[in-house]
Structure formats: structure tokens, C-alpha cells
## 1
Amino acid sequence: MLRKLQLNENYQPQLVSYDEKPIDKNRIRVKSIFAAPKHGTEMTEIKQRPFENYYYDGNEYIFKEKETPNSVAGMGLGNMWVGEIIETGAEITGFEIGRRIAGYGQLASTHDADPSWVLTMPEHMSWQEAVCYDPLQFALSGLRDANCRIGDAVLISGLGAIGQMAAQAAKLSGASLVAVSDPIAIRRKAAIENGADAAFDPEKEDVGQILRGMTCGKGVDIVIECSGDYKAIEQNIRALGYMGNMACVGWYKECHVPINLGREGHFNQQNIFFSRACSEPNRDFPRWDFSRICRESWKLLTEGKIRCENLLYPVVDFAECDKAYEKYIIKSPEKSIKMGVKF
């Protein structure tokens, strides 16, 4: 039986059955082997539902109210999959049956994919590396937008998948100090295992004061804010040096807490801006665009320069992924970094 994971009318994850249609002549059919959702983005879409009543006008660069609101019930849940080709359309060439590839899509037994959108995986590449392709794009974009350079001191705030990728990418870029901050111990532990120099609990430690001590009183040059938490912004501003750069990568929900921007942020003339890899044009356009960010991210992963294996847990059976999604992503996100699914 073929099944896929989606939101039901009560905004809860539910596995539902589906039937396959005859494959189009220009597409390939893939049987899923592994997959992973995208925790922060999907939780914003589930809990905040920003697109039920509004849409983004790409011509005027503003959100506008919809004339007819529409529910996100029925939305597919999931981000990336790894699978093997089981069927090809009549006009497809260069994609043999059994080849292992990765792509975008919800958690589902099979996928009918556009061959121009899939990624061919080398033999040595792990499925964990493949499903970290999406978060690495946003991490890499944030570091570039913040102008991270060799010798910089960097703070990564929030250690979900994007923050974990950002910490490793900052090391690769030549940062002299990579500090990380997250209240969840298992996430701090993973970041240290993967090369971060220091890890802090922002709910128990004055991260800004500590980092001033570690940087000869200067503060960090760069903050990559991946938590999407408004109170974290206060800590980050306190840690950021004079005229330093903070790239806000996390997708913020509606603000329900007071935040104080009138201390270090005002006195230290800091640069705080939003970073979104797939918003075009890129800050370095025309030399850089989203396609180049994607290519470089995949290259880093296929070359084994980003460690991903300790970031995917728990790895749950697809038959139980609706219950696991509810447990590890909706109700207890502190129990995982990025949930994996095996088929």
C-alpha cells in the first residue's frame, strides 16, 4: 500500500493512502529509502499558518491579504528524500533503473520526479548527507550575507539543522572562533563533536559577557541567528561586536514577547539583517545566485566536508512517522535535531 504524510483537517500529521498514475514521458519514478522533514519551517507553517490568509506578492515584495482564505489542511509534510529509480518515462535518458538519487518532496512511499530537479548521489555519499542539502543552503547563504571571513569570531545561535550546518561551514571558511548557543544539551553536544570551539546555554549563561572575555573585549564579528527566537536576538546583540554583522536566518513567528533593542544594538551600531537563500537576487548578484548556493552546498556534502551522521535521530520507520512527527517535532522538539525516516 502506498502512503504519504500530510496534515489532516485538525492540523495533525496523518498517513493517507494514494494511487499512482501512469508515469509521464518526461518524469522518473522513485521508491523512497530514507527521508527527513524540515522542523522549523514546517512548524511555522503548521502553528502560524502564514499563508492561510495572506500571500506574498513577488512584484511588490509585500504580503497581501487573500480574498478567499484557504486552509493548509492537506499540506504534505516532509522536505527531502533519498530513493532509487524504479521506472522512467518514455523520453527519459541517462537515468537507469536502480540509480540512487535525492530530491525534494513530502514523506511518501514513491515520488514522480522531474529529472532536472533530482540529485545524483555518488556511491560513498550517505543518506544523512543528502537530506542535509536543504539546511546547508540556508547556512551557507547566511554566512555569505554576513560577510564571514578568515580569522573572524562567529556565534551560531540556534542549533537545529541549519545552525549545525552553519557552525561547520564557519569553520571551513576559516573562522578563528566558532561558538554555538542553544538551550538543548544534545544539540550543543553534536555541534562540539562536529568541530565547534565552545557551546553555551543562553538560558543559564551570559553569552555576550563570556564571549567578550574570549575575544579581548571585542565581541564576535559575526552572528548567524538560526533559532527564530526573539529573546535570542537580545543575547546575540550583546555578544556581537561594534559594527558587527548579524544574519537572521531563522523564520520568525509572530512576536509575543518584549525584546530590548536599545542597549548594545543602539550604542554599537550593529548591522542586523535577514538572510534567505532562495530570495533573489542574491546580495552578491550576479556572481552568486540561489543556483550557485545549491551547487556549492551539494559539492561540500559530496566531498564529505560536512558531518551529518550524528544530526539525524531518531530514525523512525515510515509506518510510524505520523506518531513520531507528533512526538519529536510538534510536542517535544528538544528530543531531536533532525528526525530521519526509513522506508
## 2
Amino acid sequence: MLAFLARRVLAALPVLAMVAVFVFLMLRLTPADPAAIIAGDNANTQQVAEIRQKLGLDKPLLTQFAIWSGKLLQGDLGESFFFKKNVTELIVQRIEPTLALAVATMLLSVAIAVPLGVLAAWKHDTWIDRAVMALSVAGFSVPVFAIGYLLIYVFAIKLGVLPVQGYRSIYAGFWPFIERLILPAITLSVIYVALLARITRAAMLEVLGEDYIRTARAKGLTDRQVLVHHGLRAAAVPIVTVIGLGVALLIGGVVVTESVYGIPGVGRLVVDAVLARDFPTIQAVVLVFSVVYVLINLLVDVSYVFLDPRIRY
């Protein structure tokens, strides 16, 4: 087991290194000149050259990468051109709303999708199965922003039962915190529920055809015991894999969802940075999202050891 874990951790290190190189080159190889953007439209050539020297953009590419990597290892992600603040400080200020939205979406999606997928597999080729698959197709087909605007129109404008925009910290009260996460979490979870329900159904259909499932039924076990203790447990590895891979959907959806609902999170920070051509902020956020994605998939790989006893040996 320790050898398996060590291999997974070592395999993640080159991926993180490649991500760092890509993010570094993203700023340096862009057609726009960061120094010219900082200086403004009215700056002369000498002012642009002075800014390039101050930022170290006049040095060789390898030297720039060495300096940037050293600062990165110290937790320094650079300074924002637009916000005039340290990028690390900006991300720390915005991380709470994004983290709360991502966790709420993940919990809501798993709580809905896994039972739906198990139910669809149990009632295979019935109207229940077809209804779940139809909902999955609809979830994949409708864009996130369209779902968001529809929910805002129904629950905020027509019914007036939920707030439209903004975020409240959990320290300001549990209900104000939750009520501002309900609509964004539902919006973001639709496509995730569609993906996870389909994979759960497919994994359960494969497992329910195994001999040990028929043996369990022959022993007189109830459907609930067969589905949960034998079927779902054996199908857990592909389901958990998709949960980890679905983080990419969350990362992309967070940017759109936070913009629709006016949530001051990291996703909204990305939009503001792109509109302002704030390269250091874009660079830092892409790096943070990439590292989070790699680490979550590493945790998913580690969870295989506990979900499938065969991997331990």
C-alpha cells in the first residue's frame, strides 16, 4: 500500500512542474506587452522600458523563470496590475465564497446524483430509468448561465423567496450564509448531477450483473442490502473517479456562476482580471486552480486503497 501511495505522489510532482512552466510561459509568450499595459496608452518608450526593467522582463527567459520559481516557493504570486495588491492577498480574500460554493455544490450533487444513478440501475429499462437519463441529457444540454437566470427569475423575481446576489460569511449567521448559496449551488450542480448520475448508473449496471450479486439475492438479502452494501460498494471506484474529474466542471462553472450571482469569489476575480488584462492575477489563479485539481485527483487515487482491497496488495 505504501508503495502505491508513494508512486501516486511522485507521479503528481512532474505534473505540478509542467503546470508551473505552462503558467509562467502564458504571461511571457502573450502578444501583449505587460509593461505597456501597466504604463498606459500615453506612456512613451522610455517609461515602458523602465517598467520592463523593474519587472525583470528584460532578462533572459530562464533567468525570469528561476526568479519566478523562487518567489513562487515562498508563496509570492506577484503583484496585480489592476488591483495594485499582492495576488496572494487577493486570492486569500476571495477564497471563502468560492470554497463554500464548491463544497455546497459537491455535497448537493453527490446527495442527488448517486441515489438517482442507483435507482436508474435498479429499475433498468423502466420509465424511472428513462426519466433519470432524460434529466441527465437535459442537464448536459442547458448552459450554466441559462439555468442561473431561470432560477433567479422564478425564485427571486417571481416568488421572492431567495436573494438574487451577494454572499454572506458563515460568521454572519448560518441561515443568511445558506440562503445565498442555495441558488448558486443548484445552478452549478445541474451539470455535475447529470454526469455523476450517468456514471453511477453505468457502474451499478455492470456490478449488478455479477455472480456475487445473484448469490446475495439467493441468500435472501433485501434489495437495499444488495444495492448499498454489495452493489454500490463495489462500484465506488469509478464513481469516486468521476467525482474527482468533475472538479474541472466545478472550476469552469464557478467562473460563470459567481458572475451571474455577483459572488465576490475567485471566479469573479478571474473575470475582472481578464477584462482588465491583469496578467499576474490570471496567471496566479490558473496556477492555484491547476494545483487544486491535481491534488484532488491525487486524493482520489489515494482513496482507491481504501475502496478496493485488491489495490492494497
## 3
Amino acid sequence: MTDPKIELHVHIEGTIRPATLLELARANGERLPADTVAGLAALYEFTDFKHFIEVWILTTNCLRSRDDFRRVVVDYPAEAAGFGAVYLEGIFSPCERVARGVAWADIFEGYLDGAAEARERYGVEIRYTPDLYRGLDPAVAEECARVAVRYRDRGIVGLGLGGMEKGMPSQPYARAFAIARDGGLALVPHAGEVAGADSVRDILRYDPARIRHGIRAVEDPDLLAEIRDRGIVLDVCPTSNLRTGAVAELAGHPLPALRAAGIPCTVNTDDPAMFGTDLGREYELAAQLGVSAADAYAAGLAGALCDDATRARLAALAE
């Protein structure tokens, strides 16, 4: 029997396999540099983190309608359930789509419709933590936070911050973070992925529930101790770190050092279609780094932003 798995860091836009992406592009009149499945698979071969962001923006522009958002949500749990996934916290980035004329309601309700369908069809619970991105107009970020709060009762549980860390401070989004927190949402920003320990320390001032990546915290022993003492869970994505160049080789991945410091770490795919991985593969890599499926599940339980009843059901699966 496959061990149950919790995944807390997966960008829904980054789960779209090439065949589906091609279909969506053609249906929505989007032009891509490649118009075959093989060509799109090659498009996912990027050179560094900056190039990855460029490809991500290009390809995710193919999502235009409420039904597009619903469909891609349903597709991923069908895959992840085969590896034992029982609970996912999906990330989506609405602000880029709104900038291209898509309505907030179509985005949020499409993703939420997909979560309900995935639960019914595959038994996978899904909650959401939409992302802002560094460089975004703060006024748009604040509007996004307000919209996210309005959907809290339907499964929006947090607000994140992604994008390029270097040269992109978090301070312009302090008001958006406050709106989200006042509305009952947790903060789950990206930090310490390709930028150093200072990036992690900067984001700690907002009292995040979890930090996505956070691997560069290993550069500062005092920072590691603070993360541990505050009980902050890190969402670690081994293949992602290798593909973006954040980590040079698996043997040098910071995951063992993070665990040795007493920090709970979840195991995640990040953008599985774009990184050529899946949830089973990430757990295999984590095991090579000394993190068992049980360890990862325990961290997932500690970091999940679900309600108490859902947490109790998830805990029972580990017994």
C-alpha cells in the first residue's frame, strides 16, 4: 500500500503537461514558440531561475477561462493520487491572469470548482494559497488579498509571495499581507530559494505560517535556530532546486542540514510538469537525503492550513 502523502507546495499552473498546454493554447488563440507536444516539452528546458520565470509566464498565459482553471486542477490530483496524495495545498497566481483581462471571479471560482470535483472523483482534499509576485503593483496585490479573503470559506487558506527575490523587496506587500491576516488567512511566502539567508530573515518579520523553500537558511546558524524555535515549517522541493540551479547537485542539498537543525520539512514537486518530476520521485529523492515518508507526512500535518476536522482525518491516515 502506498504511504499517504501531503503536498503543500505545488503551483497548479506548473502541473500542466505539454499535451494539455498545447490544447489550451490552440483553444484560446495563444501563440507559443512550439506547436507540438515534443516542442513544448523542450520549451520546459530552461537555463536558470530567471529563464524559468520567463517560460512560466509564457506558458501559463494559455489559461483564460473558468473552465480552464477547473480542468487543470482536476488533472493534477488524478496524477498525485496515484502516488498516495490525500491532501494538497495548491498555489495559483491570479494577478498575471487579471492583467490579461481575466476576471478575479473566473479564476478563483474555476480553481475552487476544480477542488470540489477532485475531492469527489479522487478523494484528494485541496486548499489554496494564491501567490502575489515580487514586482507587482502593491495596489493590485492588496486587491488580490481582499478577493482571497472573500473566498476563505470555500477553501482559500493563505496568501503567498513568489517571483524573483534578488532586488525585489517584500516591504511593498506589507499592506496586502495585513489584509490577508486580518481576514483570517495565513502567510506562506517564497524566500531563501535562490537568494540568501537575508531573504529568509526579511520574510520572518511578517510571521509566516510556513516558508516555501527557505533552504538558504542553512547559511546562518542563528537563523536556523530562530526558524526551529518559532515552529516554522519549510516546504522543500528537491528537483526544483536542482533544475533552477538553486542547488548544484543532490548530494549538496540542504535538506539533511535543515532536518538536523530540528526544522520540519515537507516534500513537494513545486512545478512537476515543468521540472519533469512527480510526487513519487520527490519522495524518492527525499529518502536519499534521509527524510522518510513518515517524516514528510508529519511535517505536512504540522504545516497544513486546513480546519481541525480535516487535520484529524489526515492524522488518522498515519496511524
## 4
Amino acid sequence: MGSAGMVAAEFASTLGVRVACAERDRIGGDCLWTGCVPSKALLASAKAAHTLRDAGTYGLTAAEPEVDTARVWGRIHAIQDEIARTDDNADRFRALGVDVLPGDARLTSPTTVRVGEQEHTTRFVLVATGSRPALPPIDGLAAAAPLTSERIFALARAPRSIVMIGAGPVSIELAQGLRRLGAEVTVLQRGSRVLAREEPVLAERLLARLRAEGVEVVTDVQADRVSVGTGGCPKTVHAGERSWCAEEIFVGAGRTPTVAGLGLDEVGVQLGEQGVVVDGALRSSVRSVFAAGDVTGGARFTHAAGYEAARAVRNMFLPGSSRGPYLVPWCTFTDPELAHAGLTESAARAQHGDRAVRVWRHDLAHSDRARTDSASDGELRVVTAKGRIVGAHVLAPNAGELIGELALAIDRRLRLADLATVVHVYPTIALAIQQLASEAAYERARRLRWLVRSSA
């Protein structure tokens, strides 16, 4: 009963389907307990501390905040408990007619699930067991009991110093948040880039921001060993002759699907390296078994899991099949945020050819709202192919709130100039979308100047 399971249960119950959900741990899944909710709560506290230090930017007197990370962690846990009591509550689902079954679940046949000591017969099974952090094969890492997204929010306070292995979204978000709360933070990345799936120029701009705030980011480094208590250091990450010492080590180097112990292979469900193998309808190799969310190895986001869950239920019970591709935007919730929808420039050129692709840019230095908010370090990039929008990338405050409009434009195969006809509120960061779209419209208008009638 994580992001996918809860959506599936609620949607299926509205169709009059009899639903049972098996959950061996806490309702809410990764999003509530180890992912989106606690990390965003941490980032909110971190931003407040940063604003106090940076108050001079706004014409106020700067002040060094008194940060007690035990209180910050207490706030995180209070928010989680509030959501668990309300929206992610077993009684709310029972009121919808859903049977909530506590315990480990295992398929004993394609249409039979054992939960605890009881067997339940069903028409369809939805596997929505998610994924877990993966530990890279580094000598001594497991013995050092590293933190992961599953463990860091179970602490009573933040570590005073931390070395992070991996520079994906989870690590980068936490690195900035922990640094703003006073921790010494080092991020080690095996490759040459952080946030490797993002538009490189925008990722580099964000990286410069983190380094300016005191986050040490080291790229092209291959950690090969971890030691504990070496030279008086609690935990040390080694890479050849170099080493980094900290109170804790955090691992943000990928995830692995949760498929062990479910009886999937025994009933004939095909498994791959990324989890349950599904078709476009989210059906597995066994006709009665569907899967959604992280366990399929697709886009590992809460919103993607919820969408897939609803799609799977629709394909189980409603006429017609939802099988086509679907666009999943995402956002890295740093300050500023970095949001992504569709293709990067390089991916667009590889798919459509250089001559068909154009990149439209709008720097937030030209946004009145960004200037008033002292937040002009950002940029909007829209990628078009043969005139239609195929990618959008935003580095800006609240970029995650902006990307939906651009994702819709990609999904509906709109031209950039089409967005110029949508009146946006002034002054907002979102107005940058209309300003950029107006450039495309004006360019087209210049080609049509010959149609303008001269005055008599």
C-alpha cells in the first residue's frame, strides 16, 4: 500500500470492484516514510535557515540561525504521522470497502494469494511492492552500516558530516538540505556529471549553486573501499590514494525492485533485472498478474506509480486497453528546482536529426518576478523538433509547478508558438513560458510581413 497500491485500491473501489490490499509494513510506502514527504519537509526547514543567512539579499539584516536538527527531524516525523493519521490511513480505505490485510503476501497460484496463514482467491493481482536502495559492491561498505533513504529519516537528528556516494536526485537534494542545516557534505560521483539524465547546462548551473553554498562535489571518482574507525575517523570512503572522512556515509546509487519472496517466478511471472516484465498494458507474462510502480523498473516516481496503478486497474476491468506510451515529467527539488519533461537536446538530435531540432532559451535574468525575488539564477529551455515541442527543462523556483503546462504541450504535440496564445499572469516565473513562446510567434510573424496591408 504505497503510492501505486493506494491509488489502485481507491480507483478499483469506485468501480464497484471488491478489493483487498496486503501490506507487511506501514501504509504509505516509500513516499511517506522514506522519500518525498520527509525529504521535502527537510528541504523546507533548510530553505528557511538559508533565507535567514541570506537576508541581506532582501535588504534585511542577515542572521545565523540556531539549527537544532533534532527539532527538524521531529518536525519531519510529525508531518509523516499527520499524513498517516489522515490520508494514508487503513480506516479510510476500509470506509471505501477495501479489505486491508496486514502481513506478508505470496502468490501460490496465478489467482491465489496467501497473506499470513490465509489464502485469498482473486480474479486479478496487482504487484506494487516498489523498490529499495541498492548498495554498490564497494569493499567494507555494508559493514559500515551506511545510511540510505530508508534509514536517514529514522535518525533522531542529522549527521554533522556526511559523504554521499552517488550524485542522483536523492543525493543532490539531501546534500543541499543538509549543508544548509550546518552539516559538512561531500558528494562523490563515479561519472563526470551530476544528475546525468538532466540537460547538462542546467545541471552544471545547479552544481555551481551547490558548490557556492559549500557542498563539496567530486566527480570522476571511483570509491573502492570503506573503513570504520581509521585514524580516528568514524567512517572513511577511499578511492585509490584519496579518502574522505565523515560521521556517516549515505548511499544514493540506484535502487533494486522488491520481488523476493513474492512467489512470482513460481507461478510463471517473468522477471528481469529491473523487476517484473510487463507489456504496454502493465500485464505480466501471467494473464491475471499486473504490476505498477517501481517494481517494473520504469520511471521511479510517486506520480508515475499512481498513474500506472490507475492504468493497470483500467486495463483489468474496463473496455478497451490503455497501452500507448505516456510522458512522465519529474523534478529535482533543490533550490532552485530543476524540472524535466520529454527529451533533452542531445536525445532530440539523436532521434530527429540535427536539422530538425531547435533549442529555445529564456534566462531568468530577464524575468521581472525572478528579479523581485532575487532568484534570477535560472533558465527555461524548450526543445522543438520540426516545430513541435519535444522537451522542456526548467531551472527556477517552483519549477515543478511550471513543468505541467510544458508536459501537456509535449503530450498534445503543440508548437511552441501555440503557448503564446495562453495569457499568463504577470508577474510570475511562469510568464517566461509565454515570453519564450512569443519569440516563436514573432519569428513566424516576421515571415508574414508581406501580408500586412499598407495604409492608403
